[in-house]
Design goal:
heterotrimer, A alpha/beta, B alpha/beta, C alpha/beta, A: alpha/beta, abc type-2 transporter like fold, 2 domains, 4-stranded mixed sheet, about 65% helix, elongated, B: alpha/beta, 5 strands
Amino acid sequence: MKRTLAIARKEVFHILRDPRSLMVSVLMPLMMLLLFGYAIDMELRDLPIAILDQDRTPLSREFISHMTSSEFFIKNADLASRDQIEAGFRRSEYRAAIIIPKGFDEKVTRGEESPVQVLVDGADATTAQTVDNYISQVVILLNNRLVENREFQATLLDPRIRFFFNPQLRSADFVVPGLVAVIMMMICALLTSIAVAREKETGTLEQILTTPVLARNVMIGKVMPYMLISAFDAALVLIVGYFVFKVPMAGSWLVLAGYSTMYLLIALSFGLLISSVSKTQQVAMMMALLATLLPTLLLSGFIFSVDSMPLWLQVVCHANPAFYYLKILRGIMLSGHAWYPLEGGIMLGMAIFLMTLAVARFRDRLE
Amino acid sequence: MQIIRYLVIKEFRQIFRDHMMARIIILIPFVQLLILGYAVNTDLKNVKTAIVDQDHTPQSRQLIKSMYASDLFLPAKSDVTPDNLEDRLGSDQVDLILWIPRGYAEAQSRHQSAQVGVFLDGRNSSIAGRAGGYTLGILRQENQRLLENSTLNASAFSLPIGRITATTRFFYNPDLTSRDYMIPGIVALIVTIITAFLTGMAVVKEKEVGTLEQLMVTPITPLQLIAGKTIPFLILGMIELTFATLFAVLYFKLPFTGSILLLFLGALLYIMVTLSVGVFASAVSRTQQQAMFTVWFFLVYGILTSGFFYPLENMPAFVQYLTYINPLRYFLPILRGLFLKGVGFFDIWDEYAALLTLGILFFSAAVIRFKKTVE
Amino acid sequence: MSKPESNNHIAVKAEKLTRRFGDFTAVNSIDLQVQKGEIFGFLGANGAGKTTAIRMLCGLLRPSEGEAWIEGLPVSKSAEKIKRRIGYMSQKFSLYNDLKVWENLEFYGGIYGLSKSEIESASDIMLARLQLAEYRNTMTVELPLGFKQRLALGCAIPHNPGIILLDEPTSGVDPIARRKFWDLIYELAESGTTIFVTTHYMDEAEYCSRVSIMVHGKIVALDTPRELKKQQKVTTMQDVFLKLVES
């Protein structure tokens, strides 16, 4: 224990000697949180559209004002001819163009079908889909009004939608738990892997191993300070999320801390495992970066739905600790669920497995 | 020139001497693209859905059929009742519950509106929001169908009713595959990681080991040193870009509609910026760890403010200003435009101009700062 | 000083050379002149300011005050020209550990502007001279320290400089390796190269044509070893050093 602490103390000195790295490891999570929290709004808004109104009648103007009356669209261009449309798409000047042909009003008055053409830049498929949905919604609304004028019941189906646990679908409620998972994994794995690789590169690790400390002491001593930094970062994100972004905390902080410790252990063991296979800091960093940043961001269910992925990739996701942790985190914070025997068990298993593997590899390499 | 050549040869030898590094560099584009290409998919599928049908009529069954018409919603095994909705959503058994209350068919037959409940697990608001949107879309269509039927029934009315119909055509990506839009972004990420990180660390490594001091007593000028340190990663970046593009086109069947020349020109300008970031990071750092952190900061900022995940138009004004000095913000539209939209130079010349400006700015800053360190 | 003084004969010169780091004065107004072809020993305890002084002579560090000249060229103004006339080997043996022996030589030859054929012939000669011919394809990291040190010397002088500055070249290596290294230095000196070497091994000081002894940033003595021993009335340089440092 004494030896472990001695090594931990040395590591703390290393960290304090390098205030910039420490700053980054503290400021980075905050920056990610603020940028994500403020910049990402899942509700689409202010999308530019172009209008080509060849009819120029009261009805066509009404149609246009319906389109642009909400915050969803802003009119960016009044086109004079069809030929201009594609050039504008190529220059990304607008997302959609609406063509109201001549005779639009007249056909409606005569009781015929009156077609409107909608051209959408489909490159960004998600946004394009939403744009299309929105336009057809406006069309239906307008049609209903036309019907209503004739005293018909327009809505035969009246959907009532309700989102549980996050009724307004606030993006902060969604971002904060995800960021906690990403940040803890990254900071922990990156710092640990590079800290060990640095000593390998400079040869000081050999020096330490000639002293009567055990590989176990070295490892625990080295990772303890980084565990504290990561835990501090996670707490910081949670607290800023709670106070600044008003993310709820439906469950218990204590339960959260328990699961988080398990997750931290996984991240640390993973960092150690990386450092045991890499000789230089460069390799350690590249591996840690590739194995943590993108997977925790993209293969955890944070941003993209795991259920929508092909089966083989779903299997990969299920090997990702962030996948389970995120589920637990969202549960505890947003819905107050605390009982996750399956997820918790899997995480515990991962922690034990990785830790054993890391210690074994580490010893192999050094002794 | 010869001096630069020897610097470049040396750098390549060092990179590929480390087998691990060589493997990482070669595998990055393939593994990343393969995994992320499938992961980065905003098309929703298999949303676990439960239906509480208390009406049990042909009409309610018709609605259920419409819900399950695509693979968007997947029936989940669950015993949902109106009383345990929250619990079933909370315990992750289902993502969405559609509740058709008793009297659904009857209300319709009397030309009254029938309520339908849609309940979602909002904890993953991105998925919930979209699933909700799709559900409402399906219900709207159902409404429209019902309406038309009832208008037919009401044909006794003297005048036919005029109706607006919208026909939508999607340009560039008629099937709306979201992957096609995300993959160019991953290509950009791969290039960024290789160029910015490796340059940053490679220079600092010489500082740490002490070889930089040895180089400083030779007649090498700082500019030659920077060139020797960045050219290898420029070459690697270009090779990775080529591999990644080929992989995207051959494996993921992405179209490539623009000019190859424009692709390389854009990449050249973009890499100039990322290399400068690497050099700058190494100039202000004493250790590789610091350099890595500095580049990391840039990378995170770059991804978040580039429009990689969400459209830039969505961001609040002050964040929009932050995006203007982000090179990825310009490189991404270039890549997406060249892959999908068949853009020509005059469609996106302003992106090129912005990249060139940033390149000159970042490069000058990096050179000035670097000179200060070595002198 | 007994030798004739003419600028043409002076390889290295320093006047009032001073370097401060904050409040600490590492090098305090030193003056010295090194004649061409001399082996000049720059002695001092660890931390006496030797490395700071030698780095200023090479142009790696700007002096706070004073000036240094290499072959008559002021270091502050003609740093680039000077780099072609000197070879410098630092304490740390700045080699690329992940390159092979010949690759290190090739690289340094290349950045000194030698042509491909020049590098090839020069490397062969150099490897033979350094007695490293059989390690040509060995990875540098695997070389014993004494071999590394010889390779570092080889890498510092592919351009046949007139002046070689060595900063504690032999620290940490065994006596046989040191002997071999000094043989190399003699060889170079015989062919007319000026050697400026810092060391804290007093037996090495005996090999030098002249030595200076530095204490706390100042030069306290400068003369031939024989003269210094006579002045201090002792028989070895070791005693000269101890006497001067303790006084």
